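Friendly challenge for the regulars: who can give me the structure tokens for this chain first? No prize, just bragging rights.
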Amino acid sequence: MSVAVDISLTDALTKYFGFSSFKGNQEAIIRNLLEGKHTFVLMPTGGGKSLCYQLPALLMEGTAIVISPLISLMKNQVDSIRSLSSEEGVAHFLNSSLNKAQITKVKEDIKSGKTKLLYVAPESLTKEDNIQFLRGIKVSFYAVDEAHCISEWGHDFRPEYRRIRPMVNEIGAAPIIALTATATPKVQHDIQKTLEMLDATVFKSSFNRPNLYYEVRPKVNAEKEIIKYIKNNPGKSGIIYCLSRKKVEELTELLQVNGIRALPYHAGLDADTRTENQDKFLMEEVDVIVATIAFGMGIDKPDVRFVIHYDIPKSLEGYYQKTGRAGRDGGEGRCITFYRYEDIQKLEKFMQGKPVSEQEIGRQLLMETVAYAESSVCRRKVLLNYFGETYEQENCENCDNCLHPKVQFDGQEYVMTALRAVLAVKEKCKADHVAHFLAGTQTSAIKAYKHHHLDEFGSGSEKNEKFWNAVLRQMLIAGLLQKDIENYGLLKLTPAGHEYLQYPQPLLISEDHDYDADETEDGDYVPQSAASTVDDELLHILKDLRKKIARQKKLPPFVIFQDPLLEDMAIHYPITMDELQNIVGVGAGKAQKYGKEFLDVIKAYVEEKEIVRPQDLVVKSVVNKSGLKVFII
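First reply, four minutes later:
Bragging rights claimed.
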């Protein structure tokens, strides 16, 4: 072990990070690394992965080399570490965004022993002059963040990540810690094999994120529902993912027109615009970022309150990682996905022309996503099962299927009616048209085709088009219908559909939840972490102060103090440095650096409002002449 054996890790944790105890496997992971062993960490976003390499780096001799995929992520992480220490040089990054003078400064700090963590992109690691420099320093260990990028089976494969091990061999041997929030057993094995660490101690935490609420909505009037949701949650940060750049731009414009502070983020924007848009999001100058699914990885903000998938992602792994951006500080996180079967078929079409093996993998991943979206059981159960984890509870109480169980019924009669309707319109209409036709709605298209004169028109008028859309979608899944993608997505019967007409049998259908009935639901959601005793007025004042300091220091507000810490301040009213450091998550370094201004504001507020703080209610006992105790408050 490179650290004195008698050091108390808990004391170090309190000193640097302000926590009195470790979460889950953190302590065991850190001890394993301090003992010089290779370490593989599988831990969900928000589980405290970063601390597993940050704390040992601060304690060990030398500099830890942290390999991270994105420049934007590195800057945030370096800012966060610096906020814990009085030494600015404690953490640096080395990448293409630095000029020569800045690179010289970084190298000087490393050589002088100031720097404990050096963040590098894999591309920077391959540069010959960097390799030569790193050969001459004491490397405490290597940390490979977002390690799933190594695997071709991972949802974010990056070829340059496969060159990490040869670079490590050139620089010099040291323990490796590989960390990821999302990896199936196959991906995990690939990572360990590529990094030549099959002997690593593996630490696998539960993939469950109890604070996240999962919901899948039918994709009908999605734009309207998104605007309504954001308007019901003013001032909350959120990310919306779309499949195409075009949709990102369109949706951003629509949000802006509706008075929502939103900006786009995709690979088609130049690097400066991307950085500027992301910084505005981090600095809370805008509330919403609309990003492409392929390009959302660099958005790293602990107080994201909602993640909306306008388009369904290509894999459950990708979905889990993107939704994992919500509620990383332990607070509220709403994950809403809009789904229609056409989007799946669109994704299948994108795969054409790729190697057969790749198409097979892609289809397999897509079908898992469809099963998740269509499922009527607990979303958590399905998601955790995908990662090989069993979720024992029957009701998680934090997903749409548990809070609003889908009504299931034998749909044989409805399926027969729908099949006859598709044949009646000669298999030349889309699902929406057929749904209106069944419900008996005389739309302009139905009148134009004279479909309202057909006998089957309105044959399902006891139900509305929303109901029929749900039935048609599930008939597509069951293989009774198919969409002719080459021909505008027209509905056609499959051989199985024709057979069903001849030999009908019971078929379970789920009714979609009516979201329009939940007028207040979105706005009234109370995060599990929020305590009713939070002084909202003080919390608002503290958030304004945080924003002001963040602007002065050119840092994202969450680097100063995260939301849960401000909430605790608005409950306990600390007015001394000791009281501030008693708040879980406020370390000595952070308290010294930013504490005074917050304490001054809280003290003035307490005096002005004449607040009696819980810690001031000290019960003293005295003995009176009669020998009875009298309690004075």
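The longest helix spans residues 588-609. The two ends are 51 Å apart (CA to CA). Your move, everyone else.
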